[in-house]
């Protein structure tokens, strides 16, 4: 399937820091330990999710299928990111540069935008680990504010799996790893699709 959506790393709005980190991670992919989650893979996952029916929510019609929240902004103004997945270590890394439309306090990223990117990253990790899941809770602590346009690294990992429950922890650091911006713990629950009405 052609997504009609180009990969994001050729966007002009990507800062030098983001490009540099992106290429560092692409290098880590060469031995197969890490894999880049491409736009096509994201779209395929979304498409699959949109075909699911659970808790009486009917699957979406093909024409209604929208893009995800984080991809609904003009280049550079919202969420610019790339994700990498490590299957053996059950980890995800998201390189994230938040644009001016995500502003909360002047010059700083809104906490809702930060938790959105954390939630989205670890939802992909939990989904890749045990199948489609939803966030039951996410408990985030904001330790330092993130300047608009700066590049941060979100690290997410699976801590424990108990049947349908996946417990994850995550952190948000500066690109040079010197500043810890936020930390979160969360629970994702695998969707009980058998309960669904189709
Ligand atoms: C579809 C995803 C695609 C992702 C990849 C695709 C990529 C492209 C799409 C991008 C998508 C981005 C998505 C971002 C992530 C969202 O933003 S998700 C949106 C925000 N979350 C929600 O709206 C969830 C609302 N809550 C619910 O629907 C239901 O409560 C849940 C979470 C599905 C669980 O309901 P349930 O399946 O009926 O499970 P239930 O039997 O109640 O609980 C199961 C177990 O979990 C425990 N549990 C449930 N909730 C809690 C809680 N809050 N605290 C503690 N324990 C709890 C229960 O106690 C139970 O434990 P056990 O008794 O088994 O030990």
UniProtKB/TrEMBL annotation:
Signal peptide: none annotated. Residues 107-179 form the Thioesterase domain. Pfam families: 4HBT. It is an enzyme of class 3 (hydrolase). It is a peripheral membrane protein. It catalyses: (5Z,8Z,11Z,14Z)-eicosatetraenoyl-CoA + H2O = (5Z,8Z,11Z,14Z)-eicosatetraenoate + CoA + H(+); tetradecanoyl-CoA + H2O = tetradecanoate + CoA + H(+); hexadecanoyl-CoA + H2O = hexadecanoate + CoA + H(+); dodecanoyl-CoA + H2O = dodecanoate + CoA + H(+). GO terms for biological process: apoptotic process; fatty acid metabolic process. GO terms for cellular component: mitochondrial inner membrane; mitochondrial intermembrane space; ruffle membrane. Belongs to the THEM4/THEM5 thioesterase family. PANTHER family: ACYL-COENZYME A THIOESTERASE THEM4. This is Acyl-coenzyme A thioesterase THEM4. It comes from Pteropus vampyrus. The gene is THEM4.
